[in-house]
Every structure is written in C-alpha cells, then in structure tokens.
Amino acid sequence: MPQCKPPTSSLQSSRILRLLNERKSFLSITPQRTFFSSSKQSLRYHPLPQRPQSREFLGFLDKIPHNLVLYGIIGLNVAVFGMWLLTRQKYKLEGDPGPLIWMHQNFLSSWGNMKAGRVWTVITSCFSHQDWGHILFNGVTFFFMAPAVLDLLKSRRFIFLYLGAGLASCTISLLYGHYIDRRDRPSQGASGAIYGVVTFLACVAPTLTFQLYGIIPVPAWLLVSGAFSYDLYSTWVDKRGTTDTVGHIGGMFSGVLYYILLRRAGTRFFY
C-alpha cells in the first residue's frame, strides 16, 4: 500500500520548531518583551505619582501634650497680666505713660487699633486681663474646665476653639460697639475665649455638675444658660459697666457653633 505523506505545512512547522530548539542553547533566544509581559522593573516608563494622603490642617498641633497647651495658655495670660501691672506701676512711679500706651495699642481690642492697622490685637487680647478679680475668676474657671475639653478635642481642635471663640468675641464686640453703641469700647477677648470653652463642654455634657464659686452645684446647661441670660439682659439695658457682656455672648455662641460643626462632621463625643 502506498504510504501516506504528512502535509507539507506540518513538516515545515515541525522542522522550524526543531531548528529553534537546537539553536536556543547557544543563541539565547528570548521572546521580545512588551508592555503587558514585562516586569515593572524592566519597563522604561515613569509611574504616575501617587496622590498624597489627606492631612488635617495644622495636624502637627496634636503632637503638643495637653498639659503644655493648658499651662501654656495660662502662662501667656499671666505674663500679659504681669505686663499690665508693671506698666501701670511705671506710670504711677515715674509718670511715663509710654509703656502703658503700648499695652493699650497691642493687647486691647478696639476700633481705634483696627483703624490703625493693629489687626493682631483681636488675637493678643485673648490673653489679656487688667485686674486681679478678672484673671483669678477666669483662671480658676479655665484651669478646672479646660482639661475635660482637651481630652475630648485633643490639642489642635482645642486651640482652634480657644482662639476662635476669642476672635469671634472681639469681632462681635467691635461691630456692636461701632454700629450700635456708636462708641469705641476697648475690650479683652480672654473672657470670650474661656466662655467658648465652657459652653462647648456644656453642649457635650449638659448634665455635668459645675461647682459655682466652688460651693454651689449647678448643672452645666443651667449655668451657661444663666450666664447667657444675664449678659443678654445687661447688654439690652446697657448696664454693662466695664464688663464686655457682648464679648461674652460672642464667646458662648462660638462654643455652640463649634460643637454643631463637629457633630455635623461626624465627630462623636463620649463623656
């Protein structure tokens, strides 16, 4: 019987494969690399830059220990108060008003200072007290209330709360004095900043008991509501004396607003 010959194409294909296998050992034939088959190290291209992870604004402030924030703010208030005492004493003993005028120009929030371009006074006044009763009452309140808020907010947000409440206190006081009172009433924002801290704590824990004057137990919501009502009444009937009740109201509003903003951002507080 005649033998069947394989197709010519099959013979040629098998011959080509055999020749390639024989030559591969000394030719070191390697398949050509493509974009899809090459390893990342062998490809000559620059990878797309990775998007940096989102960082919180001034996040490094959270690295500051809580005690340093607490005693730092108290220390600044004490230092500025000492400067007020020294400049007054210098004026009494030597009759030199220069240093005292400088304190008024740099540590009081007033419309005159703003018109003169001393815009930093809305911040520096947040650490300013002029008399013993003022600094003692504010200092004791801050010393006992601030640690709880620091634990809740951490250092960065606490600094924002303190400075934000002080800034709002000064701004509202300036606008009220200029457009409603029609007079320039220099003031300090330290009380407004501390009122903001206390009000924030009252929003987080309204049933928390405060010791009024260290003796009378009062729930936080009642104390803040009472202070707000008193300042609002004093402002309405214009019986404020030397107390900036408008600034107090601005500080309390700031504490409430900051609490609402954090809650809307999804922050949960456990106290």
UniProtKB/TrEMBL annotation:
Question: Does Hydrolase show up as a keyword for this record?
Answer: yes
- The record places domain Peptidase S54 rhomboid at 117-264
Family, per the entry?
A: Belongs to the peptidase S54 family.
- List, in alphabetical order, the GO biological process terms annotated in this UniProt record: signal peptide processing
Gene3D superfamilies, alphabetized: Rhomboid-like (1.20.1540.10)
Q: What is the lineage of its organism?
A: Eukaryota, Fungi, Dikarya, Basidiomycota, Agaricomycotina
One GO molecular function term? serine-type endopeptidase activity
UniProt membrane topology term: Multi-pass membrane protein
Its localization reads: Membrane
Name the keywords, alphabetized.
Hydrolase, Membrane, Transmembrane, Transmembrane helix
Q: What is this protein called?
A: Peptidase S54 rhomboid domain-containing protein
Taxonomy, superkingdom = Eukaryota
Do you know which InterPro entries this protein is assigned to? Peptidase_S54_rhomboid_dom, Rhomboid-like_sf, Rhomboid_protease_S54
Cellular component GO terms, alphabetical:
membrane
**Residues spanning the membrane:** 68-86, 135-153, 159-180, 192-216, 245-262
* Originating species: Candolleomyces eurysporus
